[in-house]
Each structure stands twice: as C-alpha cells, then as structure tokens.
Amino acid sequence: MKLATIGYEKETQGTVIERLKSAGVELLIDVRAVAASRRAGFSKTLLSASLNEAGIGYVHLRQLGTPKLGRDAARKGRIAEMHQIFRAHMVEPGAQLELAKAKDFAREKKVALLCYEADAAGCHRTILAKQICATLGCEIEDL
User: Fold this and answer.
1) What residues does 30 pair with on adjacent strands?
2) What is residue 39's predicted lDDT score, i.e. its pLDDT?
3) Is the pLDDT of residue 63 over 90?
4) Which residues form the domain of 81?
5) What is the C-alpha to C-alpha distance for residues 54 and 60, in angstroms, rounded to an integer?
6) What percent of the chain is predicted at pLDDT more than 70?
7) CATH number, domain with residue 27
8) In principle, which of 63, 108, 133, 134 could form an S-S bond with 138, CB 3.0–4.6 Å?
C-alpha cells in the first residue's frame, strides 16, 4: 500500500493529473489551508472539476493545511520553523478530525496529498504522509 504526495509548484494542471493517473490515484486530498492559487488550474473549484473529468475524486481538508505563520516561515526559507508551527497546529481538534478522515480515505483507496511545494522535504505534506503511514503501515510515494 502506498500513499502518494504531489506538489504543483513547477507543473501544469495536465501534468499533475497525468502523474496522478499513472500512479493509480483514486482520490486527491488537497492539504492546503487556502485552496486558491495564482497558478492556472489549481484553485479548488477548477481543480476539482478537472480531476472529476479524469476519474479522480477530490476533497479539501483545510485543517490539514499549514497555518499562516507557518506559510510565512516557509516563504522565508525557514522550513524547520514551519515544521514546528505545523506540528503544534496538528494537536488541534479540527486538525485531528481531518487527519482521521485522511487516514480513513487512505484505508479505502489510493490517495495523494496535494500541496504547492515541488520538494516534498520542504512541505508539510511529508509530515502528514508520515503520520498517516505510521498508522496504516504504508509507504510514501512522492510523485
């Protein structure tokens, strides 16, 4: 069992969808706090519709996104600080509830966690993937 992660920083929507399809992803879990983007095709409504056309489900779990202070730290290259802020956020009840939902989805089908950063090591989605896989015993596949 594999849990995929993907960042769209340097990609087109079409390329991301093709990677997801090639990996057998059935559901994309958007883990951005704000599911809007200046990059064409990656705002919530358009992304969801395009994924649906490709036969891939979409769900936005906002509480699994990085809080604003964490996003600000990441933009300044302070990844360790962003990770610390995100880990503190993850103890919040809303985040725990949505983490449980993500685990349930991952038990049922092949899922991918989506965020912006191309490099998974510099993104909070890696923390989420590790938490999910620690529970489910799955392997992380960075697309």
Assistant:
1) 60, 114
2) 86
3) yes
4) 2-142
5) 17
6) 100
7) 3.90.190
8) 133
Choose among 42, 12, 21: nearest CA to 115: 42
Q: What is the CA radius of gyration of the chain?
A: 14
- For 8-129, strand residue ranges (E) read 27-30, 57-60, 111-115
Answer yes or no: pTM beyond 0.90. Answer: yes
Residues 48-56: contacts with CB within 8 Å, 24+ apart?
50/13, 50/17, 51/17, 51/20, 54/17, 54/20, 54/21, 55/21, 56/17, 56/20, 56/21, 56/25, 56/26, 56/27, 56/28
Over range 24-32, report the average pLDDT: 97
Number of domains the chain is built from: 1
Instruction: Please name which of 35, 49, 38, 23 lies closest in space to residue 111, comparing C-alpha atoms.
Output: 23
- 3-state secondary structure at position 140: strand
End-to-end alpha-carbon separation of the chain, Å?
A: 15
Chain Cα centroid distance, residue 106: 12
